[in-house]
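User: Sequence recovery, please. Input:
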């Protein structure tokens, strides 16, 4: 899939040198290892609660991770581990949070669905569908007011396009020309229901862009370089005062909605097609090799990634649970509930 609906294609405007190509591949490989390890730890009963994995969707996170500035803002859903990682959150902190350990991002208090690190610009993982879209607009409005040229990037699923907050946020973003990029990660299914079964238009985000005066942008979300180019164009628009961008990136999750979901509602041949022929990581690896990238460089990244994830796993496992005394911190402004009485 190409940006067939985009009237302002950025192809060729943001060429990637070898360093940037390797960065993209590395980010994807590390995200894949992180998600797979989260799955494995869940199956060992070490992850507290459920998980919503982004296996198969790594190209979107990697493309934006390689394009964003350190002071930009990321807002994502509960399927947000990759988006946190590409902003600089460590593997150890993410795995520790999933396992409810003190070493976790939020010292084990947030869990898989609420990982956050504002020091990295990761402004929250939101479990309420669409809730973060107006908040991302607010962050963008703050950046606009302060004149910082920061951008807010908000990732959401295809099901969010049928939520009121989607339309409200886009409307205000367009009216005020806010420096915000909205990215629909269309993995074809809104939890257990095919998005096409409950949506009046074929492309739930791209086909609605015109309603807010925006260009319709539909991209292959499993093409890492295309995602990087698309991200760069949208971020340039945001920083230059051009207002918001709405992107629909078509992708596919390899597992069910969550670890409690076997995903049997999806046809076996459909799952096999996406896993075997449209998996973003081997697709990009093969593309780089065909373009002349030395295999040794990719193999070195693969080996280093394996070492990283093993080390992070052991560090997270060795951390104890959070102490009881932090139970009421980060809940009320003064760290306690006494003021309520």
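Assistant: Recovered sequence (341 residues):
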């Amino acid at each position: 899939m190409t940006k067939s609906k985009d009237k302002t294609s950025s192809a060729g405007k943001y060429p990637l040198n070898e360093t940037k190509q390797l960065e993209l591949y590395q980010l994807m490989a590390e995200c894949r290892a992180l998600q797979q390890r989260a799955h494995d730890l869940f199956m060992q009963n070490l992850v507290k609660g459920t998980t919503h994995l982004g296996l198969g969707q790594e190209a979107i996170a990697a493309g934006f991770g390689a394009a964003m500035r350190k002071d930009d803002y990321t807002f994502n859903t509960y399927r947000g581990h990759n988006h946190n990682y590409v902003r600089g959150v460590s593997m150890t902190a993410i795995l520790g949070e999933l396992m409810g350990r003190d070493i976790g991002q939020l010292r084990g208090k947030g869990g898989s669905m609420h990982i956050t690190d504002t020091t990295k610009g990761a402004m929250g993982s939101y479990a309420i569908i669409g809730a973060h879209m107006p908040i991302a607009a607010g962050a963008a409005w703050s950046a606009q007011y302060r004149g910082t040229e920061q951008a807010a990037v908000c990732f959401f699923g295809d099901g969010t396009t049928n939520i009121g907050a989607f339309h409200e946020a886009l409307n205000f973003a367009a009216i005020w020309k806010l420096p915000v990029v909205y990215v629909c990660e269309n993995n074809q299914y809104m939890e257990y229901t095919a998005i096409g079964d409950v949506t009046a238009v074929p492309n739930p985000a791209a086909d609605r862009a015109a309603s807010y005066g925006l260009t319709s942008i539909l991209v292959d979300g499993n093409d890492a370089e295309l995602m990087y180019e698309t991200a760069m164009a949208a971020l340039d628009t945001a920083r230059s005062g051009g207002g918001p961008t709405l992107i629909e990136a078509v992708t596919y999750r390899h597992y069910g909605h969550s670890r409690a979901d076997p995903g049997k509602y999806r046809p076996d041949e459909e799952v096999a097609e996406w896993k075997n022929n449209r998996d973003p990581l081997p697709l990009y690896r093969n593309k780089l090799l065909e373009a002349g990238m030395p295999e040794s460089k990719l193999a070195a990244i693969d080996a280093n990634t394996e070492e990283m994830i093993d080390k992070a796993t052991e560090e997270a496992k060795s951390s104890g649970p959070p102490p009881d005394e932090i139970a009421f911190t980060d809940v009320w402004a003064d760290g306690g509930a006494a003021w309520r009485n």
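The chain has a mean pLDDT of 94.
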